[in-house]
Specification:
By secondary structure, this protein is α+β, with helices and mostly antiparallel strands. It has a domain at 59-86. The protein contains 3 helices and 2 strands; from the N terminus they run H-E-H-H-E. The relative contact order is 0.20.
Length: 86
């Protein structure tokens, strides 16, 4: 995630980092995005030029079968926006 983040921000883009199911956005592989903290980010696809999903074993579980994530990806793709997965 850090490489695209720096490339995008250095090119002048505003970047939003969000969790599909809430939870704290910690930088370790054991963070649970379903944390009871209630953190959540509502994303309006119309406000963005692209969607980048960052992979690895941690995000693989909350992304797979998640209607929020798949809906966001479908909406972005069908709107002609850039959609990428690392």
């Amino acid at each position: 995630m850090t490489h695209p983040y720096w490339e995008f921000t250095e090119a002048g883009y505003e970047v939003t980092i969000a969790s599909p199911d809430g939870g704290s956005l910690a930088a370790d592989g054991y963070s649970d995005p379903r944390d009871d903290s209630g953190y959540s980010a509502e994303i309006d696809v119309a406000e963005y030029d692209a969607v980048l999903l960052v992979g690895g074993q941690g995000p693989m579980y909350p992304y797979r079968g998640n209607p929020k994530v798949s809906g966001l990806v479908v909406e972005a793709y069908e709107s002609g926006k850039v959609v990428a997965v690392v």
